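Throughout our pipeline, every protein is held as a single compact record rather than as scattered files. The record that follows is passed on verbatim for readers who wish to inspect the format.
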Amino acid sequence: MTSTSRPDPADQPHHTRRTTLAFTDPSGRRRTAAAVFGPENRRDPLLPHRIRNGVLERPERSERSEKREDLQDLQDLQERRKAGGGGHRCVQVRLSAPEAVVPAARALLDTEVGTALHLHRVFDGTPYAQHFPAIIGHELDTAEPYVLYEAPRGRPAARTHVISATDQRVIARDLMLAICLLEGQGLVPRGISPATVLWDGTAVQLWGLEAVDRVGRARGRWGRAPYCSPEQRLGEGTVDPRDAVWSAAQVLYQLVTGRPGRTDGAPADLGEHRMLAETLRGAFTPRASDRPSPARLLELLAPGEARRAQLGVPSEEPPGHAAAFEHALLLKRQAPPTEAAGAGPPAQGEVLCPYCLETIRLDLGELYETDSRMQYQRMDPSRHLHNSRVLADVMRVAVQKCTADPGFPDHYIPVPYLTNGRPLTVAMVGQSTTGKSHLLTQMIAEITDGGLEPFGLKWQSVNPEQHARFVRERVQPLRNGRVLEHTGGIGDGFARFVESLLITDAGGQVRPVAFFDLGGEDLVRTDSALRFLLGVDAMVFVVDPALALPLPHLDHARERWGLEVNRDGDLAFGTVLDRLPKNGAYLDVAAAMVLGKADLLRFHPPVDRWLAEPPATRLDPARTRRESRDVHGLLRQHAGQAWLRPFDTIRRCTLHVASATGGQEDHGRFPPGTRPRRVLEPLLSLFAMHGLLDVPGGPEALAVGTEPALEAVPRQEAGRTARGGKGQRDE
């Protein structure tokens, strides 16, 4: 579905355009290069992406690329440029500014770049790299995003008219090899067509990376008949590597016969073409489940090649990190239960004021309502006692003046906050640069958009006027692409109240949920701060990847924001954890760690896999543990143990990736608008830990995993059992 070969711009001097590009190369380092581009065309009439050939003239290092390996990378690029006759031939795939504001167009370009970087990471330096486009660099967080490739090798099959019997077999082998290699990475190329299969006389190069999808995903409609399989054309079932087998067989049939095949089965003249009939007869079956696998076909075409390919591809799984995570969970499961410490929560009927952090209870003598000028006026609910419906409506919008702290500025608490039981307090923890405000705003926005409904939860505003103001001042500007100021409002310098909602669970139980932003850097040991921490129910620790991860592709963000990597962890984490009451091996507050600004890492494993996951409709403890394990491994490998202190200190703590905006800001705005991803998952885990959500195995299974059969058996007894042949235990 993608065209990759265009006239050389050097042959069209009147249509060339010179420009200077700044982009990120596959190693994550910034590059600058002068470039000359020829005329651009639509890559495909049905797609918004544009393509143009060009020459990179002058690659340079960025300001921070001072390391020896950077210089070597630059010299390698210059050598390739010299070999190309004075310039590095390239292809640019881009979106114009009007097209880039369309989320679907951005998503396709993100998919393409993510796949290209994944293939570079896995196959660069191996013989298999030749079968895929070679990425030079990309620049996506801009008004006109693009990706640069080395010039395509060969001609599209659509323009190849004569092919020998020997070449037929080589092309079939290379196509099946490419499909097998992608399947080994959990990927399926859905866009195989005569336009995306290139042949240079010796090997196939497979383009169309924007159409790659993950195995097991729901099929989306993609491609043109007859090259897309019947199930893919209709968008039925789930993505299967055998979808690509159908497409490859159709391309080969056209190469051999010069005409397209049938859209619903094997061509009538298949038996007349020996290579097709002997190796690909089953590939034309309409249903994927009835087709041979790509590995089986590759074995017919090149015996042993599938196994060699499998053994020749390195694993991306960091060594030892999964075991470290499982051992940490084991220690948590084996730790004795933690008893409550400190003064405990407020007494029955009392709640913590979200502003002054003093305890209050409902006082019918201190109720107020707003008049037409939005001024608070005293109200007397007794005049509505004769009409229960009117009284309920009046109390729904009424507020109570809090007088618990006479020295605190005047503040008012919505009555529903005081009359629906003890609120569940959720505190966001992290330094001011972590993006807590954006993340919390998007969490609440997702809730109010119905994001909890698939899980059996419903929401209602605690106070309609306050919620409308929050939407007007926070949600709408962020969704329109504006960068928010830091969270403000009345509150203690340490804990600032942001918003509250009424959450109704599947059993009809209503509970207020209050969201706070903790300024951990400024926490002092005041009575109100300690009282708040004694009553806090759940915490979200937000990790800023620019502070935590010394990865090269984050250098550009650090340079823009004036940040440096901090190997000692987030100061706010330590400040809050040191103040929490502790009685036992672990803190007993429910917690979630969130690797925020995950769009910065959207092409880095394992974040790339989790950001590409479709939204969940049920909470799966096994899936949550896999995500926790992956994030734990990433932080352990690159950031160090200091950044994992919340997980190590708190017994019930899950780990997540999330992006509040989907991209980086440019001059106070997010160019394509905001695209939140996975912002609700941390909150869902906290709700499950507090019983608002039912999960298989219960809240404990979600947070610390399930207990294997012999886990609790004393070591000596386990050893005797194993020696007696009745059980086994890994020491």
About this structure: Residues 161 and 516 are 67 Å apart (CA to CA).
